[in-house]
Amino acid sequence: xxxxxxxxxxxxxxxxxxxxxxxxxxxxxxxxxxxxxxxxxxxxxxxxxxxxxxxxxxxxxxxxxxxxxxxxxxxxxxxxxxxxxxxxxxxxxxxxxxxxxxxxxxxxxxxxxxxxxxxxxxxxxxxxxxxxxxxxxxxxxxxxxxxxxxxxxxxxxxxxxxxxxxxxxxxxxxxxxxxxxxxxxxxxxxxxxxxxxxxxxxxxxxxxxxxxxxxxxxxxxxxxxxxxxxxxxxxxxxxxxxxxxxxxxxxxxxxxxxxxxxxxxxxxxxxxxxxxxxxxxxxxxxxxxxxxxxxxxxxx
Length: 300
What we know:
Distance between the termini: 25 Å
Region (Disordered): 278-300
GO molecular function: DNA binding
Protein name: XRE family transcriptional regulator
Mean pLDDT: 85
Largest sheet: 5 strands, antiparallel
Low-confidence stretches: 285-289, 291-300
Domain HTH cro/C1-type: 35-90
Number of helices: 13
Pfam family, one: HTH_31
Number of domains: 2
CATH architecture of the largest domain: 2-Layer Sandwich
Helix content: 40-55%
């Protein structure tokens, strides 16, 4: 496990996250009797969290005041149980305390060649490869035809969250836009905790928070979730409305790279994807014959 100490930003976020998870709980959620008198603050008291986790009240106070503590894995496990954290929230808590495997701070900045070939081979299914920042490292012609011509964009803009927030066409692409943005932010928050030394990711988040009120509002809610499966309803300018199911896979040998695959959710959506494929002029290939590019060539 890594032995470096959390910086001030992480310590403050750890404190804020613990407070927010404590305040959302009702005493009855953890088997405690409901209090009869009115409470000044929502959720559990610090004394109750301390009792449930088997630590001192002073320890909980010092954690929530960001007073430089670095909890052990055992204490983090106890706090996660006391606060009824979901698996993604539990991982986020451990990441904030820097209790993660060595090497987790080295982000992928280019597609692993075998994965780039796999993206191309998945055609006719739209597919793309992302890193934890949502940088788009590789894609096939079907994904470009469905979303946007990625290779026509400057490398810093080949980022799924940037496109969703900033690109004029992609901003109007999702019928349930807030849910898509919310899920993307929940992923980025988990990634931010897992990669605290990734300045490019921190810079992206700061850019989004300063330039988009919706992002700033949802980021402040501190939702943490890595959503690997679901559906998206899309409004394509040529194909019309269609729905895709998506699956996100994490390769064992390249765990920082995420393979995203779209499939039509119904017959009408499949017909729309077929029309797009027929209309496409074909993949734009790079020097190695694959339709892919590094999305972070300008982000060290």
